[in-house]
Design a protein that fits this description.
Length: about 350
């Protein structure tokens, strides 16, 4: 049986690869998961019941900090992965894991929906054996990073379909947070310390204005978000990781400076406002298919949209079940890869 190493860096990756790992383990695959200490990542893996090894941590806002963190991760990962001896690495664009895999002769199956993440893509994707990505992303945007021999495998969907297809809402988590269904707004600030992020969005003014009208469930990305908004009237900050799709499903709407939570919410039929300043191919794909995802160029436009939703929430909520079921997810392509790989092993021996 194929041995698979999965390296998880972010909460989105924890949801995606955690869901994938559970499915693959049920199919009998030998799975080894590593991660780093960052944001809600460990909590999400815990909620999914995934066993993992913590290796290193997020390098912070500076280039030097990111570099040092990656070097330290590689040093530890080299020993762990040499000992585990996997056949494949599954990871998003990931400098430390891809370099270790390449150095140890492990094939790297990369997943990406974010060619705008230039630094991680340039450092990782040239080492990939296969890249699996949403068909909405032009081939040239992926080819710009990869080696000519890399196999490109587009699929007709978005990453979030993988875990939304099987999502079953459970209001119990709301009780722990002191929330009532359909009586609050979820807000997730921007990932301002990411290497690719170069924008300035005043989430403080957005949260202050919204919280004067409705309860706000704030999901901070960094310690500074927690410190800034802790104790603000009508703003609730969870003390532990929450299951994003669950709290999004029961919300009036979701507003985020990134793409994952807004796409999740839209796939669930919940109106979602994305404040990431640039247009993302996967967002356009979701919007063109009638999911309730909206783009806002700034805080004022986001607030204008938000208050329209608050005036008539039912108008903006959509029944999306059949729409989601018609879409592909990245696991469909991975299973093709694994089938071909196992066939190759059998034919060779």
């Amino acid at each position: 049986m194929v041995k698979i190493w999965i390296d998880v860096l972010t909460p989105k990756q924890a949801l995606m690869f955690g869901t994938m790992a559970k499915k693959l383990m049920k199919m009998g695959y030998d799975i080894y998961v590593t991660t780093r200490r960052y944001d809600y990542t460990l909590g999400i893996l815990d909620n999914l019941g995934i066993r993992y090894e913590v290796v290193g941590e997020y390098g912070g806002a500076t280039l030097y900090g990111k570099l040092k963190a990656d070097i330290e991760r590689m040093n530890v990962l080299a020993d762990l992965i040499n000992s585990y001896s996997p056949d494949l690495l599954l990871a998003y664009p990931n400098p430390s894991a891809s370099r270790v895999a390449y150095g140890l002769g492990v094939k790297y199956v990369a997943f990406t929906d974010s060619p705008h993440s230039i630094h991680a893509s340039r450092l990782s994707l040239p080492l990939a054996t296969i890249v699996i990505f949403p068909k909405a992303i032009p081939l040239d945007d992926i080819k710009a990073y990869v080696h000519p021999t890399t196999r490109l495998m587009p699929y007709n969907g978005v990453d979030e379909v993988l875990w939304i297809k099987e999502f079953k809402p459970n209001p119990r988590e709301l009780d722990e947070l002191g929330l009532s269904p359909f009586n609050y707004v979820v807000v997730r600030p921007a990932e301002v310390h990411a290497a690719y992020y170069r924008f300035s969005i005043n989430f403080s003014s957005l949260i202050k204005r919204l919280s004067s009208e409705v309860k706000v469930l704030l999901l901070p990305r960094y310690r500074e978000d927690y410190v800034k908004f802790k104790g603000m009237k009508n703003v609730i900050i969870p003390s532990r990781a929450v299951y994003g799709p669950n709290i999004s499903y029961y919300s009036i709407m979701v507003i985020s400076g990134g793409g994952t939570m807004t796409r999740e919410a839209a796939l669930l039929g919940v109106p979602a406002i994305n404040l990431y300043p640039e247009e993302l191919y996967v967002d356009r794909y979701v919007m063109e298919r009638g999911f309730p995802l909206f783009k806002a160029k700034d805080v004022n436009e986001a607030l204008e949209l938000a208050f329209k939703v608050l005036d008539n929430p039912r108008k903006y909520r959509v029944n999306t079940l059949n729409m989601v079921m018609d879409m592909e997810d990245p696991l469909t392509k991975l299973l093709e890869v694994l089938g071909s790989y196992e066939e190759g092993i059998d034919n060779n021996g």
